[in-house]
């Protein structure tokens, strides 16, 4: 009996070999398809049913996320009204390994009347669908990886690889950057690392404790507590930040004071730390996290100030870690 490891190795090797074979046979038709995709003023509509339909759906997602407006159109639904979403400015990437899929074939008369270009991705370059298409990309394979040579395995792998190649080629021609990718993936970790800024994460308004230098230690404690913060920004008469009072500063002050009454009434300007770290609101949150990590003394919050040293907010380390940038 053949071992599972041997089966896995055989399938992987056969599918890899098929992809390598396709790579060695690319011709001007692939260049033409990429040119049409890049120049398309509408959308690239991918279409298919069954396993080929799954590849088509994934391709629409890959194209959309890499700068090519795209959507998936199920061939059966298209025949019942969804063709109304196709325009003359669109390109239809039709997926059919056999090239004889009935639902695909029945689309061509309408697509011709609409005026959309058609590109067929198929395993049979001499099929009925191939004869009806404006351009054909042949993904034919010698055999499927399954032992009975029937289940779509190698053929769909090659289809998917070719589709990825089309998307990547179009992306690189457009000069699509990681910043562009982030715009389309704002909720992913990459998008957040490239888009989320300190101003989006910092605590501001009532959640940021700001007091004048003349405020008593007792009042500062209440201000920090109300803000649910770990420190307060201390400002002078012009509103410029001149220091910071942290929970640690307060504890040390009370430990060193002779009486509780004496400790409570001291102006915070006398116990504040005049040397403090601060950052600007436009710094990327990912850069701010690195800034935290590189500080010689580990702290839990950093004041956010403008160019005039006016406090705008407080960036808390635990908020950064919750933001999804890591």
What is the element layout, followed by pairings?
Elements: H1 4-23, H2 28-39, E1 44-48, H3 50-65, E2 70-74, H4 75-78, E3 91-95, H5 102-105, H6 108-114, E4 117-122, H7 128-132, E5 135-138, H8 154-174, H9 178-184, H10 189-195, H11 198-201, E6 210-212, H12 217-226, E7 231-235, E8 241-246, H13 247-256, H14 260-264, H15 285-294, E9 301-305, E10 311-316, H16 317-322
Parallel strand pairs: 1-2, 1-3, 3-4, 4-5, 6-7
Antiparallel strand pairs: 7-8, 9-10
Helix pairs in contact: 1-8, 2-8, 3-8, 9-10
Please describe what this structure looks like.
It is built from 16 helices and ten strands. It has 326 residues and is an alpha/beta fold. A hairpin with a 5-residue loop joins strand 7 (231-235) and strand 8. The radius of gyration is 31 Å and the shape is elongated. The two termini are 46 Å apart. The model has no long low-confidence stretch (mean pLDDT 90).
Supply the CATH superfamily name of the largest domain: Glucose-6-phosphate isomerase like protein, domain 1
Give the tally of structural domains: 2
How much is the radius of gyration in Å? 31 Å
**Which band does the percent of strand residues land in?**
15-25%
Q: Which sequence of strands runs across the widest sheet?
A: 2-1-3-4-5
| Structural class computed from helices and strand pairing | alpha/beta
CATH architecture of the largest domain: 3-Layer(aba) Sandwich
Order of helices and strands: HHEHEHEHHEHEHHHHEHEEHHHEEH
Number of strands: 10
CA-CA gap between termini: 46 Å
């Amino acid at each position: 009996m053949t071992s599972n490891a041997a089966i896995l190795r055989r399938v992987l090797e056969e599918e890899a070999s098929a992809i390598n074979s396709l790579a060695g046979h690319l011709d001007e038709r692939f260049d033409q398809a990429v040119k049409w995709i890049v120049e398309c003023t509408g959308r690239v509509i991918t279409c298919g049913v069954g396993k080929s339909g799954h590849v088509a759906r994934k391709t629409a997602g890959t194209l959309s996320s890499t700068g090519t407006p795209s959507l998936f159109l199920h061939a059966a639904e298209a025949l019942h009204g969804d063709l109304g979403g196709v325009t003359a400015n669109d390109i239809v990437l039709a997926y059919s390994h056999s090239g004889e899929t009935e639902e695909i074939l029945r689309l061509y008369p309408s697509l011709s009347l609409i005026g959309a270009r058609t590109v067929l991705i198929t395993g049979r370059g001499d099929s009925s669908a191939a004869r009806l298409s404006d351009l054909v990309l042949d993904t034919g394979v010698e055999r499927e990886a399954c032992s009975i040579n029937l289940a779509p395995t190698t053929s769909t792998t090659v289809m998917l690889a070719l589709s990825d190649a089309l998307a990547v080629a179009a992306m690189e021609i457009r000069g699509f950057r990681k910043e562009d990718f982030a715009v389309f993936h704002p909720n992913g970790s990459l998008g957040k690392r490239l888009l989320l800024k300190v101003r989006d994460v910092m605590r501001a308004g009532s959640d940021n404790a700001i007091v004048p230098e003349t405020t008593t230690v007792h009042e500062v404690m209440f201000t920090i507590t109300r803000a649910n913060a770990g420190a307060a920004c201390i400002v002078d008469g012009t509103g410029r930040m001149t220091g910071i009072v942290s929970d640690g500063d307060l504890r040390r002050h009370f430990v060193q004071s002779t009486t509780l009454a004496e400790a409570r009434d001291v102006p915070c300007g006398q116990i504040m730390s005049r040397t403090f770290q601060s950052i600007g609101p436009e710094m990327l949150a990912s850069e701010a996290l690195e800034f935290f990590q590189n500080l010689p003394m580990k702290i839990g919050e950093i004041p956010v100030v403008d160019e005039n040293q006016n406090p705008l907010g407080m960036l808390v380390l635990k908020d950064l870690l919750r933001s999804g940038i890591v």
